[in-house]
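Anyone have tokens for Phosphoribosylformylglycinamidine synthase? Sequence:
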Amino acid sequence: MAEQIVRLYSFPGLSSGRHDVTLSKLKSASTRLEVTKLTTEICYNISVQGNECLNADELKNLFWLLTSTFEEDTVRKTSFLDETASTDGYGKVLIEIGPRLNFSTAWSTNAVSICQSIGLEQIDRIERSCRYLIEVRPKDDSTDITKEEETAFAAKLHDRMTECRYEKPLTSFKVNVRAESCYEVDVMKEDRSALEKVNRDLGLAFDGWDLDYYTKLFRERVKRNPTSVECFDLAQSNSEHSRHWFFKGRLIVDGQEVEDSLMKMVMKTQETTNNNSIIKFSDNSR
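Reply: yep, here.
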């Protein structure tokens, strides 16, 4: 099935407070360039499945959905930013930042659900990107903005874990990413050092106790090599976040063991008060 990306724009991209904070960050990115102005907009990247474009009524509903209440003409098909070259010695650079494409954001999931409930069933993903038009004035005779300076500006604008720069307007949400092959971690032959290596390579955050325990587990009890996937699963399932090793551990203060763990101390605060919650501490970590 064919995929089309419809791009709609909303202005401004940032609230006044966030705009000022972002502008301050950008001004610290370069010693050669003086950032004089920042203009932003939101771009809605809308994936439409099928060979036909949205008709007039469908577009009207989509515009209504994306437009803020009581604020007409804040969403349109063309950009609000003026990217034309400056004639007064000022330079401009446009940087677009959006979520990484290998997963749909929670915002997209909700937006698609709403679209489909009002009849826009061919829309299967919507992601918001923010477009930053940065105007600068060089402090020397040069007027060109270097690639390194662009990268420095972009680094101030996004979280690399969940976001990335869109070098070109999106034409598809498809990504050419191939999963790494699963492989054996040769604990039977290389002993603990094999786990130490996969721990470094995959960032598993195993500590010394973990490495000793899993080495002994696979060599003496399971009697086979673990796979890289198994090691990753152990790291996630038995992490502090999931098991609360530290917060549920024995608590010894000045040589004396305290009756309750840190976790139990926190949970006790809810036993006699705040009984309006039926889900407190009710997750799969307990």
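The first strand starts at residue 3 and ends at 10.
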